[in-house]
Structures are given as C-alpha cells and as structure tokens.
Specification:
Layout lengths: L1 H51 L2
C-alpha cells in the first residue's frame, strides 16, 4: 500500500508541474495574440491614412 501511495504522489507531482507549464504557454500565447492584433490594427490604420492622404 505504501508503494502505491508513493506512486500516486509522484504521478500527482508530474501532473501538477505539467499544468503550470501549460499555463505558461497560454499566457505567452495571449501576449503574442494581443501583440499581433495591435500590429494588424496599426497596419490597417497606416494603410487608410496612406490612401486617404492623396
């Protein structure tokens, strides 16, 4: 029974560390997504100002 407890504890630790890694990936993904949206909106505004200036 003690060996089973240690095994379950080890599996829980591996699973929890995996969750923190996934959380970090999603946080980076959100940052990159927001940055991409800002860049696309900036390019659209720049194109509108380029064509409306003539």
């Amino acid at each position: 029974m003690k060996k089973l407890s240690i095994t379950l504890f080890a599996l829980a630790m591996i699973a929890l560390s995996g969750c923190s890694i996934i959380g970090g990936i999603f946080k980076a993904g959100v940052f990159v997504g927001v940055l991409a949206i800002v860049v696309v909106i900036g390019i659209i505004i720049w194109l509108f100002s380029l064509f409306s200036g003539k």
